[in-house]
Amino acid sequence: MKLLSQFSDPAYALLRIVAGFMFSFHGAQKIFGILSDYQAPVGSQMWFGGLIELIGGTFSWWDLRRAGRPFFQAGPWP
């Protein structure tokens, strides 16, 4: 187990960066219609969800560990 412990920090960083990038790209796809024919109407619940994904995913891969990030990413969902 000690053999793999040296890779724990780089593996965590890689996971955080890849997951954050995927989360932010999915939000950009909803807002801007990237690689899609559908663009959510401005002000709709899907548009706000895409905005939350875009900003929250960017916070994740930039490693902005703020106390409000999980609360922000919870979004308008019931």
- Measured distance between first and last alpha carbons: 42 Å
Helix content: 55-70%
Helix segment tally: 4
**Biggest β-sheet strands, sense, barrel:** none
Number of strands: 0
Which geometry do the CA atoms define?
elongated
Q: Kindly estimate the percentage of residues that lie in beta strands according to DSSP.
A: under 5%
Helix/strand order, N-terminal first? HHHH
From the alpha carbons, calculate the radius of gyration and give it in angstroms.
15 Å
**Low-pLDDT ranges:** none
Report the mean per-residue pLDDT as an integer.
81
Question: Structural class of the secondary elements?
Answer: mainly alpha
Please, could you describe this protein's structure?
There is one protein chain. The chain is mainly alpha-helical. It is built from four helices and no strands. The protein has a domain at 25-78. The model has no long low-confidence stretch (mean pLDDT 81).
Protein traits:
78 residues; mainly alpha; 4 helices; elongated
Give the arrangement of secondary structure elements.
Layout: H1 2-5, H2 8-32, H3 45-61, H4 69-74
Compose a concise summary of this entry.
By secondary structure, this protein is mainly α. The protein is 67% helix and 0% strand.
